[in-house]
Known about the structure:
Elements: H1 9-23, H2 30-43, H3 46-61
Helix pairs in contact: 1-3
Amino acid sequence: MSSPKITTDSSLKIFHTLRQQLLSPPVSSPRQFSLSRSRRRQSIEPKTLRLALISVYSQKFL
């Protein structure tokens, strides 16, 4: 795969973790999930997240 990488590895990692959280509901440990989610929300700005999502989606569908 020699396609040019638009996104960095960190943004791809963010996208994958968010997709895992969306696909698998935190039935086992909701408290740990909310803790990690609040911590992640502090470290990631919405603009950065949106840019990562847009770049990943444009890679897949364009």
